[in-house]
């Protein structure tokens, strides 16, 4: 029965258990109470406070004006309270772990309330489905401006002398009224937010001035350990000095890797104050003399920059800058230039160009324009060093021959070899197994595969026959496959978003099924899982993973800046999947926590709850793991 068929007009325990399918309130992680037309008086604290495991709550399309005061759900991360009658948002402070909040359609709320939310909820990442950008920068600058004007007001009206005739409470009240009247910092559209911040700042300001009349409150506010929104400096952004964040020295679990450097090398105009530029991709340089190995040089991209970093020295070796670009993806190849092997780096991003870089000569020698929308992912095919697969946001996937540049003038004559069609989903990752007979594409709506027959026989063609690879017990409503890597001998490791696990499966065992499905135009082929690796329970998508063959180790980052390490040697030795899903889930051998970053002993507020790792890469020896973060950080972990 649906929730409406169960509905008897009472949000009692019986109803909630019935629609959740659980036996105990404390076991419920997701709860949909939308479209029931109830009011806040129907939310009973004795019931809702038992929802201790609840992560996601949908209260949309009801008649709520507020969430009752005594309701506390400690682990709530996702709340949809859209299309209600909410009057204010002060109640959100009781849900400090909220990551995503939907308040759309509450007509009494204004833009002021959005700014209040970013101040009250430090973990909040999305409002009404849109990512919050530059929150800290705005909050820092705005608070500083308010405090400076409050200082001027205090001096101009001689409030210090009023203390002789007014007690503290009356003085705070009088100063708050005057500050609301006289302080005009910021745009008029944020008047409500300004008055709200003055209410918060004024009492602390007055008490400080009475205690320290000659000192500046702004200096105190910056130095205070309670300050979480003031500007911080982490160091220089010069390429040659490789700026590093300070690491808090604190006991950490016994792990095999330690952080050797934390770099800011993709900063925008804000320099070292930039915590919003997203570093999207990192990939180790191949060893020119050994195609199965890498060097200790890693390429990274984010914002307008592509960087090359030596993990041994933690120095930025080179930086390639392209104005107005936002780089999303990288791919390495090794080709013969003249008489010598050379590594070439391809980089793509929002402008739809493929930029070709020869790092040894410090030159970007070519730009290929074949995509009309942002390039999401690229990978070189095993069929030739110049064969590049690229995919854009509009599901255009091409195999290109980027050509070997002539030396010394670096002229190229590229051409499109094959187009891959048949999907209506944004590609996130491309993968070609060693055999070269299949192309895998992870997308926002599932994992798809084309037969390529080694590519060679299909030059000049459009390949439209495609089938979807489905995973057991993964809901058809949650089909985002956001991570994909090759293990060995046809074994693939992939991750479906929001599942809390990583899958190992054998592509070779599906070879005949894929051929039959494509010939008969069947929609899907189901895999049998070799192993499930326990991972973070999160709704955060687009977090990639990596594999180190030498150590048989899968490496994955998460939404809080942790690194998860798994040993999969046993699973690779026995590749027979006897049932759709293994009986047990494999735990990580280590989870490396995100390091606490400080400046002069004060935690940097932008990083106090960790950061999202968009991508991770591990070199062939397993000596280094590199993580590309959502907060303009590049972290290097060294095997100790």
UniProtKB/TrEMBL annotation:
Record-annotated Leucine-rich repeat and WD repeat-containing protein 1 WD domain positions: 262-639
Gene3D superfamilies, A to Z: Ribonuclease Inhibitor, YVTN repeat-like/Quinoprotein amine dehydrogenase
Top-level taxonomic group: Eukaryota
GO CC entries: centrosome; nuclear origin of replication recognition complex
Cross-referenced InterPro entries: Leu-rich_rpt, LRR_dom_sf, LRR_LRWD1_dom, LRWD1, WD40/YVTN_repeat-like_dom_sf, WD40_repeat_dom_sf, WD40_rpt, WD_LRWD1
Cell location: Chromosome; Cytoplasm, Cytoskeleton, Microtubule organizing center, Centrosome; Nucleus
PROSITE patterns in the record: LRR (PS51450)
Name of the featured protein: Leucine-rich repeat and WD repeat-containing protein 1-like
GO MF, one example: chromatin binding
Alphabetized UniProt keyword annotations: Chromosome, Cytoplasm, Cytoskeleton, Leucine-rich repeat, Nucleus
Record PANTHER family: LEUCINE-RICH REPEAT AND WD REPEAT-CONTAINING PROTEIN 1 (PTHR24370:SF10), OPTICIN (PTHR24370)
Gene coding for it: Lrwd1
Transferase among keywords: no
């Amino acid at each position: 029965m649906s929730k409406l068929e169960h509905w008897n007009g009472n949000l009692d325990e019986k109803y909630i258990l019935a629609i959740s399918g659980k036996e105990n309130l404390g076991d419920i992680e997701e709860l949909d109470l939308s479209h029931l037309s109830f009011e806040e008086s129907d939310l009973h604290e004795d019931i809702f406070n038992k929802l201790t495991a609840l992560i996601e709550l949908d209260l949309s399309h009801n008649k709520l004006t507020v969430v009752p005061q005594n309701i506390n759900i400690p682990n709530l991360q996702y709340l949809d309270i859209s299309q209600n009658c909410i009057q204010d948002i002060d109640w959100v402070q009781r849900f400090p772990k909220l990551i995503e909040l939907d308040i759309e359609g509450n007509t009494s709320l204004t833009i002021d309330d959005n700014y209040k939310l970013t101040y009250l909820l430090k973990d909040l990442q999305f409002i009404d489905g849109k990512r919050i950008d530059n929150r800290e920068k705005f909050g820092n600058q705005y608070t500083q401006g308010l405090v400076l004007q409050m200082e001027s007001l205090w001096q101009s009206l001689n409030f210090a002398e009023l203390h002789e005739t007014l007690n503290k409470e009356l003085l705070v009240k009088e100063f708050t009224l005057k500050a609301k009247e006289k302080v005009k910092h910021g745009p008029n559209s944020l008047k409500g937010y300004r008055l709200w911040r003055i209410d918060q700042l004024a009492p602390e300001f007055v008490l400080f001035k009475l205690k320290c009349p000659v000192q500046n409150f702004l200096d105190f506010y910056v130095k205070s350990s309670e300050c979480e929104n003031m500007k911080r400096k982490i160091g220089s952004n010069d390429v040659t000095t490789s700026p590093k964040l300070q690491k808090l020295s604190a006991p950490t679990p016994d792990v095999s890797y330690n952080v050797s450097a934390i770099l800011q090398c993709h900063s925008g105009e804000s320099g070292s104050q930039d915590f919003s530029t997203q570093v999207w991709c990192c990939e180790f340089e191949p060893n020119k003399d050994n195609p199965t190995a890498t060097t200790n040089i890693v390429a990274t991209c984010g914002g307008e920059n592509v960087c090359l970093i030596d993990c041994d020295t933690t120095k930025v070796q080179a930086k390639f800058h392209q104005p107005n670009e936002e780089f999303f993806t990288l791919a390495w190849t090794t080709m013969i230039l003249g008489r010598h092997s050379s590594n070439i780096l391809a980089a793509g991003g929002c402008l739809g160009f493929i930029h070709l870089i020869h790092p040894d000569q410090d030159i970007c020698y070519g730009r290929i324009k074949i995509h009309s929308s942002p390039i999401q992912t690229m990978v070189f095919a095993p069929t030739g060093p110049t064969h590049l697969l690229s995919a854009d946001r509009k599901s255009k996937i091409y195999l290109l021959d980027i050509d070997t540049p002539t030396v010394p003038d670096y002229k190229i004559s590229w051409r499109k070899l094959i187009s891959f069609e048949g999907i209506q989903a944004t590609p996130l990752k491309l993968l070609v197994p060693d055999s070269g007979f299949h192309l895998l594409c992870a997308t926002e709506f599932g994992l798809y595969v084309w037969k390529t027959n080694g590519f060679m026989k299909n030059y000049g063609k459009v390949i439209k026959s495609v089938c979807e690879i489905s995973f057991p017990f993964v809901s058809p409503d949650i089909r985002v496959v956001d991570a994909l890597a090759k293990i060995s001998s046809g074994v693939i490791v992939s991750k479906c978003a929001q599942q809390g696990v990583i899958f190992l499966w054998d592509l070779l065992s599906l070879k005949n099924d894929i051929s039959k499905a494509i010939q008969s135009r069947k929609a899907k082929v189901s895999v049998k899982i070799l192993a499930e690796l326990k991972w973070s329970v999160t709704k955060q998508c687009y977090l990639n993973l990596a594999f180190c063959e030498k150590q048989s180790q899968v490496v994955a980052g998460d939404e809080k800046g942790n690194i998860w390490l798994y040993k999969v040697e046993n699973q690779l030795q026995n590749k027979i999947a006897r049932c759709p899903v293994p009986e047990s889930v494999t735990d990580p051998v280590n989870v490396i926590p995100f390091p606490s970053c400080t400046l002069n002993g004060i935690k940097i507020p932008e990083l106090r709850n960790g950061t999202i790792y968009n991508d991770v890469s591990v070199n062939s020896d397993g000596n280094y793991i590199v993580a590309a973060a959502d907060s303009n950080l590049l972290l290097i972990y060294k095997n100790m």
